[in-house]
C-alpha cells in the first residue's frame, strides 16, 4: 500500500484545513484496496474538519486494523480522540505514533497539549521542546510553548522568543499572538 502518500496528504489536510470527501463505512468492514483505505480515510478526515470528531472515530478505529498504518495515521487518530474528549485513548494513539516515529513533531505537540490540559506543565514543556527539536519551524508547537511559558508558568521573558519566532514563521498574520507578544514584552520589561 502507498501509505506515505495517503497519510501525509491526509495529515496536511487536517492540520491545514483542506479536505477531500468520501463515504464512511461501518467499523469492521474489511479494506479491499489502497484506494478503499484512502476513500475511507478522506471521509473520516472530512468529518474531523467539520468538527465531527466522534463521528470520525469508528472509521479511524476500523482503519487502524489495516496492515502497518504509519505514524501520521495514529497522530490523526489521537487528534480525533482528543477532540472527542477521550484523553486516555488519545494518549494511546499518540504513543503508537511515537513508537513508529520517535521524533514525530505533531504527536509530540499533541501529547504536550494533553499534559497541559491535565495541569502537568513541566511535562508539557518537555514535549513541546522535543517537538521543536524535531522540527524547529513548527509554528503550532512554537506558539503553544510560548503560551505555556507565558500564561501557565508566568514567565513572559522566556515566552517572548517563542512568540517572536512564531510571528516570524507566520509573517505576523496572527494578530492575537502579536498582541500576546507585545504584552509579554511589556511584562518582561524589554
What would you report as the Rg, rounded to the nearest angstrom?
Answer: 18 Å
Q: Tell me the series of helices and strands, N- to C-terminal.
A: HHHHHHHHHH
Quote the beta fraction.
under 5%
Largest sheet: none
Q: Care to count the β-strands?
A: 0
- The protein's oligomeric status is single chain
- The backbone outline, from C-alpha atoms, is elongated
Describe what is shown at a glance.
The protein has 190 residues and is mainly α. Helices cover 73% and strands 0% of the residues. The protein has 2 domains: 1-102; 121-190, Serine Threonine Protein Phosphatase 5, Tetratricopeptide repeat (Alpha Horseshoe), CATH 1.25.40.
Fold and architecture overview:
With 190 residues, this protein is an all-alpha fold. It is 73% helix and 0% strand. It has 2 domains: 1-102; 121-190, Tetratricopeptide repeat domain (Serine Threonine Protein Phosphatase 5, Tetratricopeptide repeat), CATH 1.25.40. The radius of gyration is 18 Å and the shape is elongated. The model is unreliable at 1-31 (pLDDT under 50).
Write out key terms for the chains shown.
single chain; mainly alpha; 2 domains
Write the layout of secondary structure elements.
Blueprint: H1 3-16, H2 34-49, H3 53-63, H4 71-83, H5 87-100, H6 105-117, H7 121-134, H8 139-152, H9 156-170, H10 175-188
Helix pairs in contact: 1-2, 1-4, 2-3, 3-4, 4-5, 4-6, 5-6, 6-7, 6-8, 7-8, 8-9, 9-10
